[in-house]
Write a structure and sequence with these properties.
about 230 residues; Elongation Factor Tu (Ef-tu), domain 3; four-stranded mixed β-sheet; globular; S-adenosyl-L-methionine; methyltransferase; tRNA (L-threonylcarbamoyladenosine(37)-C2) methyltransferase activity; TrmO-like_N
């Protein structure tokens, strides 16, 4: 038996590429996502009462990993070398390519169809969203739950900006007022591959339409420039 899933809409995010996306939701609070619901789901009554909730679950499709799954995967949190079962991970390489992300609900706009704005998104631009459910703290928050190999927060990098990068951020402030904060949040999570350790190497990560150039040592990421992608 097979099942059909129709997208409610496609999430617009700052992340045109998979590289650089935070590995979990809510690690980059300034990463905004906008979802315009498609017909016939774009009826205001379909989201009646949703604004009373601060956070929602987004069910989505790993559309860039479709039809590809592996029984074991190598989580970045374990250094990229140790394998665990795919069902003990949040890897996109799953039998059915379904994902689940907890995000903050910032706005519900029903003036022209339905447009939802979220914060703390961890999804690539254009991700198909197949369901939205409210987060209910009294049943879904388990403070004493075990986190397995991801128990506890990961270490973060200090982030600094060159004078050139700061000047570009100032010039972009009217159009992208939170870009500097978003860059810092993304790079603080150290998106490099686990084996990367060359402090002279210049990396690039794309956010919106910008190519962020940066270097990194063990504890510090330094933003060199913001180029147009």
């Amino acid at each position: 038996m097979s099942y059909r899933l129709d997208p409610l809409g496609h999430l617009a995010t700052p992340f045109p590429d998979k590289f650089g996306i935070p590995r979990q939701p809510r690690l980059a609070p300034h990463a905004r996502g906008v979802l315009r619901l498609l017909p016939p789901y774009d009826r205001p009554e379909a989201v009646r009462g949703l604004a009373a909730f601060s956070h929602v679950w987004l069910s989505f499709i790993f559309h860039q990993s479709a039809d590809t799954w592996h029984p074991t995967v190598r989580p970045p949190r374990l250094g990229g070398n140790t394998r665990v079962g795919v069902f003990a991970s949040r890897s996109p390489f799953r039998p059915n390519g379904l994902g689940l992300s907890l995000v903050e609900l910032v706005d519900v706009d029903t003036r022209d169809g339905v447009v939802l704005t979220f914060a703390g998104v961890d999804l690539v631009d254009g991700t198909p969203i197949v369901d939205i459910k409210p987060y209910v703290p009294f049943v879904e928050s388990v403070p004493d739950a075990r986190g397995g190999f991801v128990d506890g927060t990961p270490p973060t990098l200090d982030v600094s900006f060159s004078s050139e990068a700061l000047a570009r951020l100032t010039a972009l402030a009217d159009s992208y007022p939170h870009l500097g904060a978003l860059i810092a949040e993304v790079l603080a999570q150290d998106p490099r591959p686990a084996y990367a350790d060359d402090p002279a190497r210049v990396y690039g990560v794309r956010l919106y339409t910008f190519d962020i150039k940066w270097r990194c040592d063990d504890t510090h990421a330094h933003v060199l420039a913001l180029d147009d992608a």
